[in-house]
Every structure is written in C-alpha cells, then in structure tokens.
C-alpha cells in the first residue's frame, strides 16, 4: 500500500491507528464508528471491538494451550508441548521466587497469565500490518487494529487490574489502618507532614499502574508506527527495513512482556510488605 | 486512541483470565513439575546410593579375595613344611631301621661264628680223641701215623 502523496499516507497511517469502535454516538446512537471523528465523539461509552476481540482470543489461546498441557501433564518424560509450557511455568516460578518475598500462591499464576497473555498480544505485531485490515475490509469492516497492546485501553486496563490487586493486598495484609498509616506516615514520620506524605505516597501509588500501562503501550505503539511507516515504502524495499525491525521486535515483544510481569510482581511484593 | 469502556472490558477480561489460570491452569502443571522434580531427585539419590553400594561390595570382594589368597598361600606353606617334615621323619626312621637291621645281622653272624667255633672245637676234641684211640689201637707206624694224621688234618 505504498501511497503516492502526503494526504493518502497520512490517511493510511491514521487509518491503521484507528480501532474498530462500537459505542453510543450522540447523533447515531449505539453504532460502529465510521470515522475517527465519530469514535472520538462517542466519548467514554464506546468499546474497541478489535482490541477486546484479539485480546480475548489471545487470552483464550493461552488458557487453552496451557490447560491442555496441564491436563496431559505427567510426571514421566514430558512431550514437546508440555516441555515448552513447563519451561515457561518454571521461568515464571523462578521469577516469582526471586522477586516476591511474601507467601501467596496467587502471585505465580497471576504472573504467568500476565506474561503469556501480553507476550501473545505483542506477538501479533509480527504479522504484517496490512494483512488483517485488508482482510476485514473485504468483509466490510473498516477498521482493524489487531495488536491490543498498542491500545492504551488494553495496557491500562491490565495495569488497573494489577492496581486493584495492589490495593487489595495492601489492605488485606496491613489492614486499612496500616495501609493508611503507610500512606500518611512515610517517608516522613511526623504528624505535621501527613498531608505532604499523603500527596507524595498517593502520587507514587498512582504512578505505578500508569507507568506500567503506558510503558507497554508506548513501546508497542511506537513499534507499530514504525512498521506502518515502513509499509509505506515501495513494495520491493519494504523487507529491507521490515525484516530487521521485526527481528528486533522479537526482543522488544518478549522484553516488554517480561518487564510488565516483573514490575507487577515487584509492586505486589511491596504491597505485601510491612513497614 | 480514546480512553473508553475498553479499559473496563480489558480489566474484566484480565480478572477472568487470572482467575481461570489460578484455578485450572497453574495447579496441574505446577504439581506435575514438582512431582517430577521429586522423582528425579529420588532417582538420582537412588543411583548414588547404588553406586556407593557397588563400591562397597567391590571393596569387600577385593578384601575377600586378598584374604583367601593369603589363606591359600598359608595352607600351601604349611603343607610344604609338613611334607618336608614327613620326609625327614621317614628318612630318620629308615636310617634307624637299617642300623637296627645291620646290628642284628652282625650279632647273629657273631653268634653263628661263635656256635661254629664251639662246634668245631667240640669236633676237634672228638677227632683228637678218636685219633688218639686209633693211634693207640693200631701199631705204631710212622707211615700209618702219617697217614692217619693226614686224614685227621683233612677232616678238620
């Protein structure tokens, strides 16, 4: 889809960065957004069907594969799938053991879900940027952004989940009083500095999920934009840049999934700690 | 790139996947992993134990072999000694027996000689008596005496 002039390349890029949005439009009511403008006008009461669809599909793929491996799991000599799955599980187990200093059997499965799910969602990026948009356009669907992690809603949504768990475990382990004390009396243990402490700590708390979500989103989005820009080159030149960038992204995809998982575990570990 | 309900939807999906993973995905894999780990550890343990046993057995066998070799050589030595002793004894016995036989033979010969001497002596005296009788009966003849004396001598 090499574009001849500036207008059409701008359009091409914008088109590729637009989600398939279904929402409550002030004029059209509940409908699919036909343009980015319409999607914006829908405000909060809209949902990105592509993001949700692909992320749930990847989540189900994860659940299906790992459940299958779990069912087949024997204590004898493991097969190929079991081997691969066990490698991931063991990796996560070691990661959790190294970074999580509490005793909570939920953390390792949580980390496994985060890691594999994000990894699968990120991996969708390796698929050439035009395949699915063109395919869905043939089916009459205008927009199709297949990588859920390039949508801040998805990354912040997961970060929100982690944030909820941070709050939950902070209160569960320390009690509401203990948590409040931690927020108001650190880092300066003096009653006069409580407001200051509160501001500091609450900002620190809120930055955790925000950083978590935006880091993943930023990396994935930037990579996606580069892929789209590369796709604007003449078709015979695309592979020259596309292949190295894709190979590089094998690293980025894994690294970002790993960072998100590790930071989540670290935050949850901090939530379990008494001060 | 608007923030909208997708945020909530994603959070819900996240919660459900995590719950499912905690409930149905993690336990069987983790259990299998740990069980296998334990099994392998046990197997390695058993192998090292068997190895140690083998070493011990080998050592014991070697010791037994050494002991039996020693014993055998001891027995051999004893037998050698005993046989030498027996030969010595037999030789001694034989020599004593021989000496005894020689001595007895010698004494027998001596006895025989003595008896012969005695007999001879008796006969000589008898012949002398007979000769004297004959000399006294017959005429004293030089010739006849000579003849008689010759006969006597021949009879001796």
Automatic annotation (TrEMBL), chain A:
The chain crosses the membrane at residues 44-66, 107-127, 154-171, 216-239, 245-270. Belongs to the ATPase A chain family. It is found in: Cell membrane; Membrane. The lineage of its organism: Bacteria, Pseudomonadati, Pseudomonadota, Gammaproteobacteria, Oceanospirillales. Key component of the proton channel; it plays a direct role in the translocation of protons across the membrane. NCBIfam families: ATP_synt_6_or_A, PRK05815.1-1. Keywords: ATP synthesis, Cell membrane, CF(0), Hydrogen ion transport, Ion transport, Membrane, Transmembrane, Transmembrane helix, Transport. CDD domains: ATP-synt_Fo_a_6 (cd00310). It is a multi-pass membrane protein. This is ATP synthase subunit a. It holds the Pfam family ATP-synt_A. It comes from the Bacteria. The gene is atpB.
From TrEMBL, chain B:
It holds the Pfam family ATP-synt_B. Gene3D superfamilies: F1F0 ATP synthase subunit B, membrane domain. Its main location: membrane. It comes from the Bacteria. The keyword Cell inner membrane does not apply. The chain crosses the membrane at residues 7-26. It is a single-pass membrane protein. It is found in: Cell membrane; Endomembrane system. Residues 44-96 form a coiled coil. HAMAP family: ATP_synth_b_bprime. PANTHER family: ATP SYNTHASE SUBUNIT B, ATP SYNTHASE SUBUNIT B', CHLOROPLASTIC. F-type ATPases have 2 components, F(1) - the catalytic core - and F(0) - the membrane proton channel. F(1) has five subunits: alpha(3), beta(3), gamma(1), delta(1), epsilon(1). F(0) has four main subunits: a(1), b(2) and c(10-14). The alpha and beta chains form an alternating ring which encloses part of the gamma chain. F(1) is attached to F(0) by a central stalk formed by the gamma and epsilon chains, while a peripheral stalk is formed by the delta and b chains. F-type ATPases have 2 components, F(1) - the catalytic core - and F(0) - the membrane proton channel. F(1) has five subunits: alpha(3), beta(3), gamma(1), delta(1), epsilon(1). F(0) has three main subunits: a(1), b(2) and c(10-14). The alpha and beta chains form an alternating ring which encloses part of the gamma chain. F(1) is attached to F(0) by a central stalk formed by the gamma and epsilon chains, while a peripheral stalk is formed by the delta and b chains. Component of the F(0) channel, it forms part of the peripheral stalk, linking F(1) to F(0). The b'-subunit is a diverged and duplicated form of b found in plants and photosynthetic bacteria. F(1)F(0) ATP synthase produces ATP from ADP in the presence of a proton or sodium gradient. F-type ATPases consist of two structural domains, F(1) containing the extramembraneous catalytic core and F(0) containing the membrane proton channel, linked together by a central stalk and a peripheral stalk. During catalysis, ATP synthesis in the catalytic domain of F(1) is coupled via a rotary mechanism of the central stalk subunits to proton translocation. Belongs to the ATPase B chain family. This is ATP synthase subunit b. The gene is atpF.
């Amino acid at each position: 889809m090499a574009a001849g002039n500036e207008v059409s390349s701008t359009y091409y890029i914008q088109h590729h960065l637009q989600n398939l949005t279904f929402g409550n439009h002030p004029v059209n009511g509940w409908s699919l957004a036909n343009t980015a403008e319409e999607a914006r006008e829908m405000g909060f009461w809209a949902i990105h069907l592509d993001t949700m669809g692909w992320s749930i599909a990847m989540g189900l793929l994860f659940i299906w594969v790992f459940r299958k491996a779990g069912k087949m799991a024997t204590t004898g000599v493991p097969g190929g799938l079991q081997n691969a799955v066990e490698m991931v599980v063991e990796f996560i187990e070691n990661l959790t053991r190294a970074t999580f200093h509490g005793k909570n059997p939920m953390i390792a499965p949580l980390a496994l879900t985060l890691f594999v799910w994000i990894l699968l969602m990120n991996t969708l990026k390796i698929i050439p940027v035009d395949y699915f948009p063109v395919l869905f356009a043939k089916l009459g669907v205008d927009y199709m952004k297949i990588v859920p992690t390039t949508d801040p809603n998805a990354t912040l949504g997961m970060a929100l989940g982690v944030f909820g768990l941070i709050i939950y475990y902070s209160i569960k382990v320390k009690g509401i009083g203990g948590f409040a004390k931690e927020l108001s009396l650190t880092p300066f243990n003096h009653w006069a500095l409580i407001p200051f402490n509160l501001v500091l700590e609450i900002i620190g708390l809120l930055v955790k999920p925000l950083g978590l979500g935006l880091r993943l989103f930023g990396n994935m989005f930037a990579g996606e934009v580069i892929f789209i820009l590369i796709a604007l080159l003449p078709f015979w030149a695309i592979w020259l840049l596309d292949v190295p960038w894709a190979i590089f992204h094998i690293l980025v995809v894994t690294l970002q999934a790993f960072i998100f998982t590790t930071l989540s575990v670290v935050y949850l570990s901090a939530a379990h700690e008494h001060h | 790139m608007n923030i909208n309900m997708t945020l909530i939807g994603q959070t819900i999906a996240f919660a459900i996947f995590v719950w499912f993973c905690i409930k149905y995905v993690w336990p069987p894999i983790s259990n299998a992993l740990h069980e296998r780990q334990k099994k392998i550890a046990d197997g390695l343990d058993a192998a090292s134990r068997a190895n140690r046993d083998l070493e011990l057995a080998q050592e014991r066998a070697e010791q037994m072999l050494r002991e039996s070799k020693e014993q055998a050589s001891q027995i051999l030595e004893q037998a050698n000694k005993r046989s030498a002793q027996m030969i010595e004894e037999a030789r001694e016995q034989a020599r004593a027996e021989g000496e005894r036989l020689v001595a007895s033979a010698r004494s027998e010969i001596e006895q025989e000689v003595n008896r012969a001497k005695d007999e001879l002596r008796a006969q000589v005296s008898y012949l002398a008596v007979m000769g004297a009788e004959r000399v006294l009966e017959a005429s004293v003849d030089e010739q006849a005496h000579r003849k008689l004396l010759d006969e006597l001598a021949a009879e001796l």
